[in-house]
Amino acid sequence: MSVLTPLLLLRGLTGSARRLPVPRAQIHSKPPREQLGTMDVVIGLTSCFVCFLLPSGWVLSHLETYKKRE
Questions:
Q1: Of 58, 52, 50, the residue nearest 66 (C-alpha)
Q2: What are residue 29's phi and psi, to 5 degrees?
Q3: Which stretches of the chain are DSSP H helices?
Q4: What is the pLDDT of residues 18-33, one digit of tens each?
Q5: pLDDT tens figures, 43-56
Q6: Which residues have a Cβ under 8 Å from the Cβ of 59 and sit 6 or more positions away?
Q7: Torsion angle, alpha carbons of 23, 30, 36, 33, to 10
Q8: How many CB atoms lie within 10 A of CB 66?
Q9: Residues 6+ apart with CB under 8 A from 40
Q10: Dihedrals phi, psi of 22, to nearest 5 degrees
Q11: Model-level pTM?
């Protein structure tokens, strides 16, 4: 068995995958009608923090109470 045998084997396994066409999505968008203001960004980030990070932080901070079996 020569040194090139594993390379030829890999080339044979991956050769057919290279020939398959990959469909690409045609995504086009227009520029926004209105630019987001600073206050809009602040409200969005604050609401994401309150909705996602605050409850998970509360659960993680009270994890020891959930572990206790009463």
A1: 58
A2: -135, 160
A3: 5-19, 38-48, 54-61, 63-67
A4: 566 778 878 888 888 8
A5: 999 999 999 999 99
A6: 66
A7: -150
A8: 9
A9: none
A10: -100, 120
A11: 0.46
Whole-angstrom distance, CA of residue 64 vs CA of residue 51 = 23
Tokens of 57: 């932080």
> How far is 32 from 59, CA to CA, in rounded Å?
38
Residue for token digits 């030829």? 8
Task: Give me 8's structure tokens.
Answer: 């030829």
Amino acid at 25: A
Quickly tell me which residue has 């994401």 as its tokens.
Answer: 48
What does the radius of gyration of the chain's CA atoms come to, in whole angstroms? 27
